[in-house]
Each structure stands twice: as structure tokens, then as C-alpha cells.
Amino acid sequence: MMKNIIATLIITIFISGCSTMVSPTKTSVYIKSKKNGQPFIIKDSDGKIIAKAITPAVIKLDNKGNSTYTYLTQCEIKKEESEMNEWVLGNIVMVSITGLLIDIGSGYSNEPVEKVSLLNCDKVIAEKKYKIARKKHCGKFVSQYDRSVHNFNNYKNKGSIYKLKHTQDYLLKYCSEYVDVSLYKNQSEKVNKVYGNYL
Questions:
Q1: Fewer CB under 10 Å: which end of the chain, C or N?
Q2: Do 120 and 33 touch, CB atoms closer than 8 A?
Q3: Which of 55, 88, 118 is the last residue of a domain?
Q4: How crowded is the C-beta side of 169, counted as CA atoms within 13 Å?
Q5: Domain, as residue range, for 64
Q6: What's the pTM?
Q7: Tens-digit pLDDT profile for residues 47-68
């Protein structure tokens, strides 16, 4: 009797999908951000909102199907594709092609990633505002540089070359990310030489 039970159990495991038999229907996913209190929503592969929460949070997501879950915040859209369920390896170890096909057919061959890290939107937004302000400031220095060149050509005094030198150095040091500084680089040797003569 016992032998029959054991044999039946072995056959069942051999022909059945390991992950289909063992896996739960949902996976607990831990969502965090570097700064707690980050609001987020989760959408499934169909674009349907399935969860809303604030970090840190643990959300249970469907374990079935080859899904892509999208995490959205005020500053980020992050997509996480389902990973292979480790129980699928049981079919490979036991060389159970039938079990592997069952797992794939049932959708339990994959599961959501268990940990997701989101950006700190306060920091991202602050950096974005800083770049906008810096770009605007660099634009003013571009105009100031043109005026400084004009003033120096007309007056050729210490005040005008000092202003031109200061404007040039600021543009080269802080504005290469926001404006084309090739002109100022090409003129810098000449400006520096004239500036040196006025020291």
C-alpha cells in the first residue's frame, strides 16, 4: 500500500509542473525609495491600475503569466518584467518536459521581481529646477559676453577687459552643458593674453 502511494506521488511530481503545484497565486513585492514617503501607482500589462501606495510598501502581485508591471511616480516610469520562477528548475532537474510545458502553459513559469527601488522625486525635481535656472542664467551670460566684447572694442580699458574675462570664465566653467562654448574656448587665449597686459 505504502509503495503504491509513494509511486503515485513520484509519478504525479514527475508529470506535473513543479511551479504550478508549489507556487502561490501572488508574490509579495517590496517597493522602496531612498527617501520614504514616495507616492506611486502600479499598472499591469494591460495598463490597468492595480495598486496605489507610498514607499516603503509591500504589494501582492499576481504570480501567474509573463507580465510586465509598471511603477509610476511623479518623476519616473519604471517597468519590471516577470522573472523565471525558480520552481521551474525542478522540471529541468527531473527532466520533466511534461511538467515544464504545464508550467509554461499555466503561466506559473514566471513571477514578479520581489524588490523594486524607486527614485526620490524631491531630489529629481530639485535637480531639474536647478538645471533650468542654470540654463537661464547661462543665457544671460551669453548676452553679457557679447556686450563685454562690444564694450572692450570701444573702450579698451581695465574695467571692460575684466568684465569680459569674468564672463568668459563663467561660461567655460559652468555652461558647457547648456550652451555651445566653442566660441569662448577659441577666443579664450586671446582674451587671457589681453587681460594679462592689464594686470
A1: N
A2: yes
A3: 118
A4: 8
A5: 2-118
A6: 0.67
A7: 999 999 999 999 999 887 678 9
